[in-house]
Amino acid sequence: MTYYIGDVIKDETRLIARTPEQFEKSGVKVRLKTGAEEIDTEKGEVRLDNGERLPYDSLVMGTGSKVFLPDIPGIYEEGVFKLKNLRDGINIKTYIKERQCGSDKCRKAIILGAGFIAMEMSEAMRNLGLETRVVYRGELPVKKWDPEFSRVILEELTKNQVDFVPNKTPVAIERQGKESNLRLITNDGEMEADIIIIAMGVRPNVTLAEQTGLKIGNTGAIMVDFSQRTSQEEIYAVGDCCGVYHRISRKWIYMPLGDIANKQGRVAGGNIGGYPMSFPGIVGAQSFKVFDLEVATTGVDESEAEKSGCHPVSTIIWSTPSARSLSKGRKLGLKLIANKSTGKLLGAQAVGEGGAVTKINALSVCLWSGMNIDEIGYMDLAYSPSFGGAWDPIQTAAQVLKKNL
Amino acid sequence: MTYYIGDVIKDETRLIARTPEQFEKSGVKVRLKTGAEEIDTEKGEVRLDNGERLPYDSLVMGTGSKVFLPDIPGIYEEGVFKLKNLRDGINIKTYIKERQCGSDKCRKAIILGAGFIAMEMSEAMRNLGLETRVVYRGELPVKKWDPEFSRVILEELTKNQVDFVPNKTPVAIERQGKESNLRLITNDGEMEADIIIIAMGVRPNVTLAEQTGLKIGNTGAIMVDFSQRTSQEEIYAVGDCCGVYHRISRKWIYMPLGDIANKQGRVAGGNIGGYPMSFPGIVGAQSFKVFDLEVATTGVDESEAEKSGCHPVSTIIWSTPSARSLSKGRKLGLKLIANKSTGKLLGAQAVGEGGAVTKINALSVCLWSGMNIDEIGYMDLAYSPSFGGAWDPIQTAAQVLKKNL
After folding, report:
1. Taking the complete model, does pTM exceed 0.90, yes or no?
2. What is the ipTM of this complex?
């Protein structure tokens, strides 16, 4: 008997069930609103919070992540929201909708954090008509990207009336400001808001794993091997609770993203079901949209490259998402990072009013297969004036970078 | 001394000149409106149409392609246009503009051919307000794509009031129909139009090459090697006049596309200038836009795969250009073709209201580096709901196809 905590995929290419009823029909027992309190690895049993004990041959940990909340007074005040699951989204929308008029109208939002979830939230808040502020301890948003690109994102925020407040660390949240419900105290001044949203990242949820004695990696996530097995052979871990192998840095890292979780789930399922599978790792591809900007990255940045023992060289070029004559002023910035000693691509970043994700996806495959920038400069891509120039920005950037090797 | 016929790029990453004056300033002599009548390979001289003889050490043929015109009466009538260069575009626009009112108003257009240039032209004609017909000898447009995708393109034409007339071969064009300037006679009935545009493809222009005794390949184009040298060591050929190596079919083929020509030019220039370079071939990536559809392909189709000794298996899946909840009914079709014996990807096609080019570019890199569909099913791409689901259609299609191996 195998118990899964999370979704179950039995068939190789098709999700067989989405609702508890569908799962049951497929012969998979589902326990909702049931906590797993303890895993007894010697007996091969899980103790549930209702006292019941379930035996297992294989067990999959899909305990996910938990929101990082700063340890400051007032973090649990009404009107302060974390951002993790569907329920949080519904709570935020309900809170704003219930305060559409009158003296407690929800007018002002503060978002703490400036990662890609914070960027997406700022757009959502503006779309709901709120005055929106992003408050961040650093100088520029989305520090994973080059400052030149972060500045473009900052311009996009400004263009859409999102106020980016840099260099501020939250110290406390208090109820009842002068004009609004809440007051945010920072290390450098205070500001008011009717709603405060915490988007400062997540941490792996490893409470049960630690209690069970599973090995935890340097990243704080459950250690797994390429078959998704933990340090206990019969226990697997998948998704936001475990680490993942980065093919470019050649390190096990923590990257809690939905596409990675899905793949890991399939790999664990295959291994348990008797189809041996291996998770081949990631190259660090990710993307988001903020207002009219596409933002994407893949591979490693310079500092990660240096930590992996590489000598990174990089270049940024500015191009257009379609042929210049058709782009109507829209821009596309592309950064490539390569290893000076080998010429191999190490990473890429892109920001643009269109075109960023398509470049980063192609470059992710280049990273995946270990291509060097010589090859990338002349590889064959689908050219059409509607989608780019006769020289793709990828090729131009690779040829420029080649000179720095 | 080196003479180029075509553009010159001296610097490795920068076009140094665009106008004749800029070329001259860079020390490159430019002769416009000057024909090359004969190449004397023994003396190393080119005889120009003004009688002058220019000596060369290296020579680059960039004689391009010529339009294919069907050998039928009336093909040179006024109002019948070929489609090749900027001048043709200007001529077409002028012709239509000069007939904006009165009895000879240009109301109806016929486009002969149904390749991707014909598709783009049909959009252009509709944008100019003309009743537009595409007349083609085959059953469906763009035969390079799977019939399932060609039918989607046909629907897009119909939705935009372009009348697609299949199974008709032009027999003659006559002046003065009943209501229009021109009458097209086909093997099966006739129809009238005020303008007829021939978009039936191009052929390599090899007249001078043949006179010079350069070897011509099976494709009808000048034979070159990976350094772009012709059968005469000191004569290079680049662009639409020469063949190109297809890495997937492992054959020299004819594919007159602008991005390929640009790369070949750089390679020839490098070799002549003392920086030995090799053109690595193509995978056959191409794309076009027709109205709201993106259409793209890469690699080979089933029949090309069979000719190359492969055993192709394929699958088509229908997905969406962004997460299903954000796609507002927009669709994206993706076809993958793999080799049954090796599992290697052989080709891909995509059609969609967005997303087709980004998929085909990523898959072009997969083809470039010889990836198999096992790997493609689990590789890392930049996931975000704005740009797709947690499982990219590429991965879903690869996993479905895997079952057919």
Report:
1. yes
2. 0.92
